[in-house]
């Protein structure tokens, strides 16, 4: 696949794995194992950025659709995975490709940061996928390799294939992660764990963040924007107001209502005084 897709930011061969340079989490690597035309491929970031260059049809968009925001969103719907939202592009095809009867694959991403003690910390997220030609449903499981002093790094301390280059099953991965990471059977528990470690947003705001990312990554967004959907996504992404602030606003609105009532009373009094003045002037003019 290397002759079909040129990756900028990684060097050929087996260089030392990238290390973080910031105190905040930044992406370091992402990888695909037995997905699409990739047997086992890594893509390295530089300063948190990744540049993919190649002719049309070489797989640039496919790399992103199989990694981000999938590895954060954990939903396999075509509308969530494919940039164009085409419902006909099923995840099963990315595995079987009309050529396999059964296939297991993985997508993963590694983040890194500098801890307060100056030591690098790593956090890896991944999804395992399994499809068979006999059924359209794709089985999925998710994993997280913890942020710790001795956290294993994929392709250095932990491999997603065996020594015979056979892709690990869910059970084999569970054994490999024992004591070093977590395996999640549901997308909801995986999303919650990702949010707790990377974003600290809470369920509602995390869902809004994923919806926003999916809206913004649409191809040619500026040519055919969905203003309503984008506006709704951006609105949902706003942080919720604090209860104390809502209480202050409610109190201010209540005070405005009281002020309106008093103003109406003053206006009615002013009108009454005006009528009295007119009558009194008329009375005084006759004396």
Question: Main traits of this protein?
Answer:
elongated, 287 residues, alpha+beta, 22% strand, two-stranded antiparallel ribbon, six-stranded antiparallel beta sheet, single chain, 8 strands, N-terminal domain of mukB
Description:
The chain has 287 residues and is α+β, with helices and mostly antiparallel strands. It folds into three domains: 6-200, N-terminal domain of mukB; 202-240, no CATH class; 243-287. The chain contains nine helices and eight strands. The protein has helices at 60-65, 70-73, 78-81, 91-96, 170-177, 187-199, 203-216, 227-237, 243-285; strands at 6-8, 26-35, 38-44, 51-53, 102-114, 120-132, 135-145, 181-184. The strands form two sheets. Strands 3-2-5-6-7-8 form a six-stranded antiparallel β-sheet. It is elongated. The model is unreliable at 1-11 (pLDDT under 50).
Question: Could you give a quick summary of the protein structure above?
Answer:
By secondary structure, the chain is of the alpha+beta class.
What is the chain-wise order of helices and strands? EEEEHHHHEEEHEHHHH
- Please state the structural category: alpha+beta
Q: Biggest sheet: strands, sense, closure?
A: 6 strands, antiparallel
Report the end-to-end length measured between terminal Cα atoms: 111 Å
Strand segment tally: 8
Give the overall average pLDDT. Answer: 87
């Amino acid at each position: 696949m290397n002759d079909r897709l040129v990756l900028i930011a990684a060097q050929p061969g087996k260089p030392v794995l990238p290390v973080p340079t910031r105190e905040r989490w930044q992406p370091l690597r992402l990888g695909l194992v037995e997905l699409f035309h990739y047997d086992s491929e890594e893509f390295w970031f530089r300063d948190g950025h990744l540049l993919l260059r190649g002719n049309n049809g070489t797989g640039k968009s496919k790399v992103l659709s199989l990694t981000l925001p999938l590895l954060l969103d954990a939903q396999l719907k075509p509308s969530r995975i494919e940039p164009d939202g085409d419902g006909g592009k099923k995840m099963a095809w990315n595995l079987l490709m009309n050529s396999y009867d059964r296939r297991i694959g993985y997508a993963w991403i590694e983040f890194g940061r500098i801890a307060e003690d100056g030591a690098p910390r790593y956090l890896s997220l991944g999804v395992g996928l399994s499809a068979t030609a006999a059924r359209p449903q794709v089985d999925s499981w998710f994993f997280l390799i913890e942020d710790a002093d001795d956290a294993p790094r994929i392709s250095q301390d932990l491999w997603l294939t065996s020594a015979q280059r056979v892709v690990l099953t869910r059970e084999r991965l569970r054994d490999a992660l024992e004591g070093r990471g977590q395996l999640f059977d549901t997308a909801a528990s995986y999303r919650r764990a990702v949010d707790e470690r990377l974003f600290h947003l809470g369920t509602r705001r995390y869902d809004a963040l994923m919806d926003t990312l999916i809206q913004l990554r649409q191809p040619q967004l500026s040519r055919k924007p969905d203003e309503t959907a984008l506006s709704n996504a951006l609105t949902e992404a706003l942080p919720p107001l604090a209860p104390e602030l809502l209480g202050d606003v409610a109190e201010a609105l209540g005070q405005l209502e009281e002020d309106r009532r008093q103003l109406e009373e003053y206006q009615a009094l002013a009108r009454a005084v005006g009528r009295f003045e007119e009558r009194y002037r008329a009375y005084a003019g006759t004396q």
